[in-house]
Description:
Blueprint: H1 19-35, E1 39-48, E2 53-64, E3 67-69, H2 75-81, H3 84-102, E4 112-116, H4 119-122, H5 127-138, E5 145-150, H6 158-169, E6 174-180, E7 197-200, H7 202-207, H8 214-227, E8 231-234, H9 240-249, E9 253-254, E10 263-264, H10 265-272
Parallel strand pairs: 2-4, 4-5, 5-6, 6-7, 7-8, 8-9
Antiparallel strand pairs: 1-2, 1-9, 1-10, 2-3
Amino acid sequence: AKADGRNLARFFDPSMQDAASRRASLEAAMREGLALGQFQLFCQPQFDCRGRLVGAEVLLRWQRDGELVSPAHFIAFAEESGLILPLGEHVLKESCRALARWHRDPTLARLKLAVNVSIHQMRDPDFSGMVAGILDDTAAPAERLCLELTESVFAENMEEITQRMHEIRAQGIYFSLDDFGTGYSSLAYLNRFPLAALKIDRSFVREVGTQPGSAPIVEAIIALGRKLKLEIVAEGVENEDQRNFLVRGGCSSMQGFLLGAPLPMAEFEHVYSAAG
Ligand code: C2E
Ligand code: CA
Ligand code: CA
Ligand code: CA
């Protein structure tokens, strides 16, 4: 199966012309998929600048009729419909189960696991309690878990979100700011959140070496991160030039097709465990 999902339109019954019934049908399909275990966790490895495996990012896939649908095709709908709450809970639960398993493997036990969290989840008053419950049930090591938020947190009710982040941070879990530089980008707010890392968006990484203006931007993000004592994670590293640039620039860690594609969780564990 291919990792890139195609247009969700092909899942729709063509007889359902109006948007409302299409949405209802997609929502029903997603609920059913959730119940049937069709939402599966993939893991992409992350390496430090010396090439050592240091972590992984969880990336969701919808295994539907033999096809893997990319989250780019369903996360926005999940957010609009509210399904992001049960879906996000599923991702967190499975991620924590993985961390608990990894804890017993000499290689995997060292890894951090990054999980994407939607701002809709952060707005949920029950979110931090739910996270605490999952940590409790799974006995996952909280200090191995890092939640990735996008800059949309800057546009939200800052006090509420900051408070919730502190509650979760107090459980031992870390936060990183994803897709840094592409969104709202209010630098003034950066140090108000309990952040451990910044992720340089792959649009900047892609242009390093091709667009003359990009290298200084990446260098500036790295310098900013260092000043703020944040780790800098680069994503979308596809070639040696990009990797060399990021290593020279002082990036903490990186991920991308050059270093390792996202793999189904079981395969990731097989490939990267001490036993595998
Ligand atoms: P993201 O968090 O920025 O994740 C990185 C995306 O880049 C992933 O796309 C990954 O497969 C892709 N990627 C990794 N290495 C390379 C590379 O070298 N080159 C290129 N061109 N791409 C690379 P994916 O898996 O399709 O995920 C898309 C987005 O969906 C993610 O972007 C994230 O925002 C969201 N997402 C994924 N899983 C979840 C989840 O469990 N919950 C939520 N709320 N969002 C998720
Ligand atoms: Ca991410
Ligand atoms: Ca990202
Ligand atoms: Ca991105």
